[in-house]
Amino acid sequence: MPKQIAEMLIESVTMELPDTKTIRLQWPAGYDVDFKTGQFITVYWPDAPAYKRAYSLSSCALDRGFYEITVKRDGKMGTRLVDWAKPGDKLWVIEPTGRFLPVFDPPGKHLVCIAGGSGVTPFRAFAREATRRELDTRLTILYSVRTTNDIIFREEFQQLEQENERFDFYVTCTRLHPDDPWTGRRGRITAEWVKEHVHDLPNTVFYACGTNELVEATERLVLDELKLPKEQMKTEKWG
To answer: What is the reported pTM?
Structure first.
């Protein structure tokens, strides 16, 4: 069946970072689509219907009445959305699709989510759903950023950690000045760091979202080094 397309009002915008904006799109009257956490929507401006861009939902399937996408200033669409999108504007939205879905069943799974930069956006949705449903799912996010000024959703992730004892959020910074007071981890995500957080391989599902380099490195770790089946590795590459 063809995907449903609807014109949606931008209800609100939130600047997460100077180059990153969360846009909330209000569902029109009568709109009710069945979708899953982890999927993406495709958006385009009414005056440029030929130019479309897909963005992971940073809201979860329990968030009804709106979609949220979190966009970095990148390329024509990302730049226009971050610099110009404002409440009251309208975007055309193609309903959610995609297979980058959290495996919440059966109970007792451990989801290890590896992200770089704006690749963390779908994992906000994972954490929201797991926390609100009070699931018996362990969720660990390993997040690589350049500096502490580049951490998206920092306060929300910290709040979710307080609400959900099975959720952990870890950050590593790759370009901090040596004198920076940050006391957390520094350097890129490594196989050794990932392995520190894995204690039950048969019940672990790995996710990687971000650049080709980050995703491919995670695939090598999971499929070649840990020799896990493809069913335990899910990826979303952003070029």
So the answer is: 0.96
